[in-house]
Amino acid sequence: MNAMTAQNLRSAFGGESQAHMRYLVWANKAEKEGFPNVGRLFKAISFAEQVHATGHFKAMKDESGDFQVTAGAGFGLGTTSENLQGAINGENFEVEQMYPAYIAVAELQNEKAAIQSMKFAIEAEKVHANLYSEAKEAVDGGKDVDFSEVYVCPICGYVEANGAPDKCPICGAKKEMFIKY
Amino acid sequence: MNAMTAQNLRSAFGGESQAHMRYLVWANKAEKEGFPNVGRLFKAISFAEQVHATGHFKAMKDESGDFQVTAGAGFGLGTTSENLQGAINGENFEVEQMYPAYIAVAELQNEKAAIQSMKFAIEAEKVHANLYSEAKEAVDGGKDVDFSEVYVCPICGYVEANGAPDKCPICGAKKEMFIKY
Ligand SMILES: [Fe+2]
Ligand SMILES: [Fe+2]
Ligand SMILES: [Fe+2]
Ligand SMILES: [Fe+2]
Ligand SMILES: [Fe+2]
Ligand SMILES: [Fe+2]
After folding, report:
1. A58, A70, A75 member nearest B77 (Cβ)
2. In angstroms, rounded to a whole number, what is the distance separating the alpha carbons of residues A13 and A69?
3. Which chain A residue has its CA at the smallest distance from B82's CA?
4. Is-contact A84 A140, C-beta < 8 A?
5. Opening angle at CA A24, ends A120 and A5, nearest 5
6. Radius of gyration over alpha carbons of chain B, in Å?
7. Per-residue b or e along A148-160, where b marks 16 or more CB atoms closer than 10 Å to that residue's CB
8. Is B35 exposed, middle or buried (0-12, 13-18, 19+ CB in 10 A)?
9. Strands (DSSP E) along B118-174, which ranges?
10. Ligand 5 center to B127 CA (angstroms)
């Protein structure tokens, strides 16, 4: 694998791994604040970030060794409204800045596995940002969000509330494969 | 919180989050290679790294915002023996280099929450390294390791195979609190 694509994939892996972890902490906080459905959404999207991190890791399975990895990550444990805003900011950064840049380099270098893994991620992040925005609107209105079930595609990290699609709109995976939260 | 301690904690959080993720991928590989107990150990220690990452994140709960985080991380998806060696290297780096340096700075700056969180981590990493070494010896001899149950302390990330201690030797948590894998 070309060095620049490998470096970008390690950075994306670092960012996804930290997002996965941050969302678990924020899920716990949402539950404590009396927003169990926001907690469910954070847990579901945390798993989606695990799907992305795992995809990136496997795309560079032959790039063994120890590296210093630089990645963007959000911090702070605020109110659930603040945490949702932090999540929206992180997702938008990935959609607008990080993945377009990394995908452009992977395309320049014709790195097919990296392109695939990152295209799945960028499409899923758009959906994550929208779901977090919907949740923030509810919380800012003093209510929990109306997501009694949240489904995650284990292939690409696409997320849908209140029911799984017949076929994943990003990767085509079948309804039966979705993981329910 | 002092800037250097906050930067070090973010780096440790980044490293722990990536170790958590890497061990889940390696757990899956161990199961596929016919080493379910090594898979169990990877999953249990993955959870211990989540305990560390969460502790670090909470120790800097008021340090909100988006940052570029640089952290050491291992990559590559090899045989289970190779993956165990990668895990041992990562644990030893934390025990011998990363945490001693970061704890020294936190002590210089009298950052009590950071010292606590990182002292729990360094003590637990020593145990992780030993358990991975035991697992590697078994795998290199062609057998699965003899760990039919693995217990994790949810406060400090201490791990014990084949039974939980009455009291956690690192943090003092009671037997009933341990999580079984
Ligand atoms: Fe992601
Ligand atoms: Fe996302
Ligand atoms: Fe999908
Ligand atoms: Fe750790
Ligand atoms: Fe460890
Ligand atoms: Fe403990």
Report:
1. A58
2. 9
3. A64
4. no
5. 35
6. 16
7. eebbbbbbbbbbb
8. buried
9. 150-152, 159-161
10. 8
Which phi and psi angles does B150 have, rounded to 5°?
Answer: -135, 130
Chain A contacts of B49, Cβ < 8 Å?
none
Output Rg (C-alpha) for chain A, integer angstroms. 16
Minimal C-alpha gap between B47 and chain A (Å): 11
Q: Which residues contact B122 (CB under 8 A, 6 or more apart)?
A: B94, B95, B99, B100, B103
CB contact under 8 A, B70 and A70: yes
pLDDT, tens digit (0-9, with 9 covering 90-100), for A31-80: 999 999 999 999 999 999 999 999 999 999 999 999 999 999 999 999 99
**Which residues does residue A179 pair with via DSSP β-bridges, in sequence order?**
A152
Question: Could you give the domains of chain B?
Answer: 3-145 (1.20.1260.10)
CA A144/CA A139 separation, integer angstroms: 6
Chain A residues whose CB is inside 8 A of the B93 CB are 66
DSSP code of residue B41: H
Ligand nearest to the CA of B23: 5
Q: What is the pLDDT of residues A71-110, one digit of tens each?
A: 999 999 999 999 999 999 999 999 999 999 999 999 999 9
